[in-house]
Amino acid sequence: MQRVRAFVLHPATIFAVALLLRLGVLASGIAARPHSAGHIPFLNETGCIARAIAEGRGFSSPLIINSGPTAWTTPLYPYLLASIFKIFGIETLRSEIAIKVCNDLFSALVCFPLYAVGKKLFGTIVGTLSAWIWVFLSSAIYFANAWVWDTSLSALALTAVLWATYEIEERPNVRLWAAYGALCAVAVLVNAALLAVLPGLLGYLAHRLRRLGVLWIKLPVVAALAFAIGVSPWIIRNQIVFHGQVLFKSTFGVALWLGNNPQVPDTWSWWLHPTENAEEAAEYRRMGEVPYMQEKEKLAFAFIKAHPADALRFDFHRFMYTWTESWEPIADVWHLSALPILLTVCWNYLFALLALLGLLLARRAAPIRYLPLLIICVFFPLVFYISVTTPRYRHPIDPTLTLLAVYSATQIVLMLSRKLQPTAALQRSVEIPG
Measured between alpha carbons, how far is 281 from 45 in angstroms, rounded to an integer? Predict the structure, then answer.
């Protein structure tokens, strides 16, 4: 029995179940739909860039049209897709399956750092439960199989950075800190939005080292240098290609405009996106990437300045949508007639509230060591509040939220059990013998 329990609770077992479940969903989804030319899964910016790389046109053309060099995304995931295109064919069914198998693998691998962080901060039970919840979390399964995008790889990258942050915080080893900086560089080259949390995490580590009185300036500098070296090829390329106007990505202007213009109904005007709107695509191609983005940024700031109340309303809707996948108050969702939709909305609210409670409880239990969790939850979504948001954009922090939700749930159960134990003991003490 002890061996069975150890097997079930082992991270490798949890990973295997997660991977098999995701592959099963992928197989059933592929088998259930008709197959044609196979182009639909790749009609997005990442897929278009990967096609351009595979065809020998370089990192370019984020839309269907041939539009020249781009910095629409950071490079690692498009190059991964391009490699798969080279092996299995450009935009073929075999390529789609191979890419989504990779996504399933990335999503399942999250179990390892998630388990490690949970165990280190809150104990084995929380770490194990968090990993098992991730196995069956609907968003983790869905995003791995529905999108040809870096969503699952971004979740793995950020969770790995969080794990590494806790692993090196009390280990003054230069090589480990250089490796940490390199890991952060890889994470940002997967998803530039992850850059938002790195200064806070490095500041936390410097604070921990200072409390220990060891190399609190030298080691963060080593990590920062390793990070700079890791991202420098991409930045140098962008500086040369775009004449000093782009560092990591070029798309802030269009994202800000899509979320702040007269046509926005609640969160953003998706139909104006250049991938959806032929006129915008033509304007993008005519102006070039950087001038197009700069023009959209000017239009967005002009709208915000002229309509501050509308802009704040959109920001609030995006905040709510980021955390609950609904911009309506919880009191307004009960009119939904479809029970699955109602249950999904209620689960999203419950998940967000449990994660928030977990953050508060973690602060009480460990006022300093909870800070990386706070940094991720606060700083990562900020840019989405003011521009464009979808549940897919939040997914990189879903493993962290899962950990916090599980921690708060276990604390609630523990508190209730402690309250019920004296009552049960009192009842036993007054029982009349038979």
Answer: 12
